[in-house]
Design brief:
This protein is an alpha+beta fold. 25% of the residues lie in helices and 26% in strands. The structure holds flavin-adenine dinucleotide (FAD). Flavin-adenine dinucleotide (FAD) binds next to β3, α4, β9 and β16.
């Protein structure tokens, strides 16, 4: 894809003002703290702006990549060519029903900790299991984020999507469609949106990023409809505090992107990685956490290639020793020609 960043920057600045940046280090926008520059970075705060941006990229044939809070991605050291847009659509409405339930319509850019802090003191339960999930609710739909047997899918009723799939072939405007719960194919860390994104491993064991389209992903979550229930604010506060304490005890304090691999059926990736002797393993500035072996942490100055080297080691050794093909939970984003150190 050829891309004239100067021209795109000038045009987008005219339309979206100071939210557009040039040569923006992605290390600033992901919890790993690694990754090279995006040619152009933009934070999109309204659904209308998202539609306008996608339309503009489709017309101009500019590559666009969507992100949320960057808590489940590993950006390449070479960064991302084209435009990276953070979905930061905020705001929500809450309808109180007589039967003790409530209906939340919320922007995809709202983060879990923020919405929980707003809802719990007002006695609304349903999302209180997620104070330790630092991503956006939109990002949460993609991997059906959750913990300890709870997940977003249990309370999610529908999502609105900016559907840009037709833009791949021709410069048409995207449409907005609503998917009901049954259409989302939600299961453990999975949704219909993840089906084509699974990271594969090559013959040397290196992780290979999923192929990228002009507008990636082609279905962009803009709004969510979530069913809540009335609960006692103190009970909710106690549950939230317990989740937070558990996290503090079990998860590393350094920068990371949460769990690296999904847990295989009936087992735990952390246990398997520890069993093959890789707990604490270091490559460059990255380390398989001493506290939880399914976390890779940035001890300072890690490169994305250090992280993928550890991913390769863990995936290969677990496969050799246990015959289990661990699936990556986090996603690789950007220019991944050289993947390991
Ligand atoms: C310390 C830590 C703890 C964590 N604990 C948990 C946990 O307990 N449970 C859990 O499930 N996860 C956990 N995570 C992972 C992460 O927070 C979740 O996966 C989260 O849902 C990702 O949201 P995000 O906004 O950061 O998405 P990003 O990381 O920005 O993006 C992830 C993927 O979703 C896509 N995407 C993002 N927003 C949209 C959108 N609006 N429309 C379409 N596609 C989109 C991106 O293109 C990308 O492919 C943890 C992460 C960290 C750093």
């Amino acid at each position: 894809m050829s891309f004239d960043a100067e021209n795109a920057y000038t045009e987008l600045r005219t339309r979206f003002g100071e939210r557009v940046r040039h040569d923006e280090p992605l290390a600033r926008h992901g919890t790993f703290g690694v990754g090279g520059p995006a040619d152009i970075w933009i934070s999109v705060e309204r659904s209308e702006d998202l539609v306008e941006l996608v339309t503009c990229c489709a017309e101009q044939r500019w590559p666009l990549m969507i992100t949320g809070n960057g808590t489940n991605v590993l950006y390449a050291d070479a960064g991302v060519r084209g435009i990276v847009a953070r979905v930061a659509i905020q705001g929500y409405t809450l309808d109180d029903h007589d039967d003790g339930s409530g209906f939340l319509q919320v922007g995809a850019g709202v983060s879990w900790p923020r919405i929980i802090n707003d809802l719990a003191p007002r006695g609304w339960g349903g999302l209180e299991f997620g104070p330790g999930i630092p991503g956006t609710l939109g990002g949460g739909v993609i991997s059906n984020a959750g913990v300890h047997g709870h997940d977003l899918g249990q309370v999610l009723e529908w999502v609105d999507i900016v559907d840009a799939r037709a833009c791949e072939e021709q410069p048409v405007a995207p449409t907005v469609i609503r998917y009901q719960h049954a259409e989302l194919e939600l299961s453990y860390r999975h949704s219909r949106f993840r089906a084509q994104r699974r990271v594969q491993f090559d013959e040397q064991g290196n992780p290979i990023a999923a192929p990228r389209k002009l507008i990636e992903p082609g279905e962009i979550v803009s709004q969510l409809g979530i069913r809540l229930h009335r609960d006692d604010p103190q009970t909710l506060r106690a549950a939230i505090d317990e989740h937070k304490q558990y996290r503090k005890r079990t998860q590393p304090p350094q920068q990371s992107a949460g769990s690296v691999f999904k847990n295989p059926d009936g087992d735990f990736s952390g246990r398997l990685i520890e069993a093959v002797g890789l707990k604490g393993e270091i490559r460059g500035g990255a380390q398989i956490s001493e506290r939880h072996a399914n976390f890779i942490v940035n001890n300072g100055g890690a490169r994305a290639a250090d992280v993928t080297t550890l991913i390769r080691e863990a995936h290969t050794r677990v496969f050799e020793q246990f015959g289990i093909d661990l699936e990556l939970e986090l996603e690789l984003r950007g220019e991944w020609k050289v993947t390991t150190t």
